[in-house]
Amino acid sequence: MVKKRRKIKYMDLLQLVLLVVPAVKLAKKMIKEGHRK
């Protein structure tokens, strides 16, 4: 059960990274646009 829990946590972490990476890219794009203005 412990191994299964760890695997689930790892998958959740991977999913979180996949969600955070595009958000960070979008934030950087917005910051660049903000500097242009």
From TrEMBL:
This is Phage membrane protein. It comes from Streptococcus equi subsp. zooepidemicus SzS31A1.
